[in-house]
Amino acid sequence: MTTNSRDVFGVPCWVNLTAPGLAEAEEFYGGVLGWTFRATRLGENFRVALLDGRPVASVGALAPRLGVPTAWTPYFAVDDAEVTSARVRERGATMAVGPLAFATGRAALAADPSGAVFGFWEGEVVQEWHAGQEDAAAWVELRTRDAFAAAVFYGEVLDWACERPGCCDVAYEDDHVVVRRGGQTVARIDAGAVENAPDPQVRPRWHVHFAVADLDGAVDRAVRRGGAAVTPVRSSPADRRVTLRDRTGALFTVSETVD
């Protein structure tokens, strides 16, 4: 089932891997995360990944054609892609690609003022898919230098904390920002001294998280398929997580709930 992006504006509505090719991505993520894949209405260069029949993400074999790096990117639902593009430019950020027309809507890629890449989507969204830390297919987290400045930028671009009914709420908790809709966490923004970090995974960027039942098993499967763990396992009272790199260079995080 689908709904329209205007009904969930400002919310992460999908995550996509921009990859060099489909076959390699399907083999890697199918083996590591147990995903299966099916064709979509977006054309032969796209596949939807499923876990137990439930849509999780998509893979687009578009990196060479668009001249963009291999990467996981969150997409946020918007009313009007042209209006959102103008807001991005007005705030000193960069429009990288689009808006481009597809069968079910329009998509664009942008980079915020710190360089973190994100997408936005106007059109049909998959109703069964939602982002959040509570029983969701995926959740997204921006790791950046200044969480407050980032929250202001995204709030103005995506209509967070506005007066419209249904908009996302923004709360400042400790040194991070929590974005919620209807009481459910849909995104986080974490601050940190990333400008001095030597490894690329800690530069300002949006990180896509996927839940797994067995964290150590997922790491082992990724390494055996040519991937790598780029952070140590981090533990909290709620979960254990680690950031991985697939064999084409895309970063993603897997997390295991702690009972």
UniProtKB/TrEMBL annotation:
<dbReference type="InterPro" id="IPR052164">
    <property type="entry name" value="Anthracycline_SecMetBiosynth"/>
</dbReference>
<dbReference type="Pfam" id="PF18029">
    <property type="entry name" value="Glyoxalase_6"/>
</dbReference>
<dbReference type="InterPro" id="IPR004360">
    <property type="entry name" value="Glyas_Fos-R_dOase_dom"/>
</dbReference>
<feature type="domain" description="VOC">
    <location>
        <begin position="11"/>
        <end position="123"/>
    </location>
</feature>
<protein>
    <recommendedName>
        <fullName>VOC domain-containing protein</fullName>
    </recommendedName>
</protein>
<dbReference type="InterPro" id="IPR029068">
    <property type="entry name" value="Glyas_Bleomycin-R_OHBP_Dase"/>
</dbReference>
<dbReference type="Pfam" id="PF00903">
    <property type="entry name" value="Glyoxalase"/>
</dbReference>
<feature type="domain" description="VOC">
    <location>
        <begin position="136"/>
        <end position="257"/>
    </location>
</feature>
<dbReference type="InterPro" id="IPR037523">
    <property type="entry name" value="VOC_core"/>
</dbReference>
<dbReference type="InterPro" id="IPR041581">
    <property type="entry name" value="Glyoxalase_6"/>
</dbReference>
